[in-house]
Structures are given as C-alpha cells and as structure tokens.
Specification:
159 residues, alpha+beta, SH3 type barrels, 2 domains, 3 helices, 40% helix, rod-shaped
C-alpha cells in the first residue's frame, strides 16, 4: 500500500513546488490576489518604460496606479509585467548580525585571551572577550542593517 502512495505523494510535492512562485498570466485576478490590494507598492512595465507607484485598481482594459506625478492609467495591451515590492527585514537581519557578530567577537576575544601570558596590551588582566564581544556585535548589527532586503516579485507577466 505504501509503495503505491509514495509516487503519488512525490508527484504532488513536485507539482506544488514547481507551481509556487510562477507569475500569474490572468489579468482578471491581478487585483484580487493577496499580494496586491489598494495602496500596495507596485512596478508596472510597458515596453521600455517603468511606472512605480501604489496600486489603485485593475479594469478590463487598464491598470490604474498612483505615481509621484499623479494617477497613471496604463492600457492592458501595453503592460508587459507587474511586480510587487516585498517586505523589508532590516530588524531581523540586524538581530541575526548582532548574534553572529557577538559570537565571532567572543571567539576571537577568547583566542586573544588564551595567548596572553600576563603582559597583554590591555594590562595584566586579558580583556579580549569583554572588548571583542560588543565590538563584534556592533559590526554584525551594522552589516545586518546594510544588507538589502525586500526586492520585487513578479505577479503578472503578459502572455
């Protein structure tokens, strides 16, 4: 019985992961997906021009977005791709960098302390761990904040 179910389960998993992340081709569902609602930041491409702004509506013959210069109505026939800006993760990246940096600073400080034989740079008492941990945490947090996050995900591509 298990021998019969295994290939079916494997095929279902393979099919579901291959369908995930595929941009939609149905214009009618463009405004009805969880990824796009009124006010969502989007980027629409028409030929060689990009329009970046907030999604307002999708109609049978046009996409309406609000850009910095005002409301733009893009004809359906000219829209080649619509992308949605993903959420940023700066706080998460900062906390991960903070932890990794602190661990690295502690490790390097422990190595420096182990090599100290009593006449260290910082005096008689080795302070590698005490100085390395916060310094590593600070450097890791700065790197974590600087990492790019979010990005654009295609939700519609013209056939």
């Amino acid at each position: 019985m298990i021998a019969r179910i295994t290939p079916i389960c494997f095929a279902a998993i393979l099919f579901s992961t291959s369908m995930q992340g595929q941009p939609g081709r149905d214009w009618a569902t463009l405004g009805h997906t969880p990824a796009i609602s009124a006010g969502t930041e989007i980027e629409a491409r028409t030929g060689g021009k990009r329009y970046r702004g907030q999604f307002k509506a999708v109609e049978d013959d046009a996409l309406v977005i609000v850009t910095a210069s005002g409301e733009e109505r893009l004809a359906r026939a000219t829209v080649s791709r619509v992308s949605v800006k993903g959420p940023g993760h700066r706080l998460r990246n900062m906390l991960i960098g903070l932890g990794i940096g602190a661990a690295g600073g502690l490790t390097l400080g422990a190595i420096a302390d182990a090599r100290c034989t009593g006449n260290c740079v910082e005096g008689k008492r080795p302070l590698g761990k005490e100085a390395g941990t916060p310094l590593g945490a600070l450097i890791g947090a700065i790197i974590g904040v600087a990492l790019p996050t979010g990005g654009w995900r295609v939700v519609y591509r013209a056939p």
